[in-house]
Amino acid sequence: MLVLRSSPPSPFARKILIAASILGLADRLDVVSVDTGDPNNSLRRENPLGKIPTLILEDGTVLYDSAVILEYLDFLAGGGKLIPLDPARRFTVLVRQALADGLAEASVLRIYETRFREPDRYSVKWLDHQSGKVERALAALETSPPAQDATDVGAIATACALGYLDLRFSGLWRKDHPRLVRWLEAFSARVPAFAETRVEPS
Ligand SMILES: N[C@@H](CCC(=O)N[C@@H](CS)C(=O)NCC(=O)O)C(=O)O
Fold first, then answer.
1. What is the pLDDT of residue 202?
2. Fewer CB near the last or first residue (10 Å), C or N of the chain?
3. Where is 21: in which H helix or E strand?
4. What pLDDT does 112 receive?
5. What angle do CA 136, 137, 138 make, to 5 degrees?
6. Cα separation of 96 and 125, whole Å?
7. Ligand 1 centre from 12 Cα, in Å?
């Protein structure tokens, strides 16, 4: 079995679960939940960055981050399934994944600001800096969403980033991004693993 160090709310870990389902590899994953805040968790020895997702292969090789793990799963499934081989599409899809991952990362950093600092120490400048990335990434994706039928790494990362905004930021992005809302509805209808990995806001 491949061991996936994970946590249900993580948009990056969700990418792996959805990709594994699309590729028919879900039953090869042993998903182990991790508290990234626990200094004694073995995660920090397996991945010096202490981040999830982290994938441990049968021979003990450790893979991170989510983009690398998706590339590995695509390779296991024969290649060219989630990351197109045709260069004309390949780099568009990889850049879209980077854009969506950056959107998720800026959103996670906004949450961490409130988790790691007391309210009177929040940096408004830092929060605004991250919000700017989120707004610009959303605008770029609204102008150029993934193709309607796409299940590549760009589409998976986009769905997971938007899902994280739904989970942690009350879905406020929806008001000004109608094309993306329609795109996400279609993705959700086409890819059952998206709904299956949804976490309810607590
Ligand atoms: N670029 C990484 C980002 C992963 C990431 O930031 N994961 C968060 C959880 S959503 C994490 O592990 N945070 C713990 C920490 O930063 O210490 C990826 O794509 O896998």
1. 78
2. C
3. helix 11-23
4. 96
5. 90
6. 27
7. 7
Handedness of CA 132, 135, 136, 137 (dihedral sign): positive
Among 67, 60, 56, CA closest to 28 = 56
Chain centroid to CA 140: how far?
Answer: 17
> Do residues 19 and 12 touch, judged by C-beta distance below 8 A?
no
DSSP state of 38: -
Rounded-to-10 torsion of CA 110, 112, 118, 119: 20
What gap in Å lies between CA 59 and CA 172, rounded to an integer? 44
The best mutation among 5, 12, 109 to test binding of ligand 1, ranked by most ligand atoms within 8 Å of the C-beta, falls on 12
Q: Which atom of ligand 1 is nearest to the CA of 101?
A: 19
Listed residue (49, 57, 91) closest to 75, CA to CA: 57
For the whole model, what pTM was predicted? 0.97
Q: What are phi and psi of 6, to 5 degrees?
A: -155, 175
Strand order in the sheet with 62-63: 29-33, 2-6, 54-56, 62-63
What residues in the chain have per-residue pLDDT under 70?
none
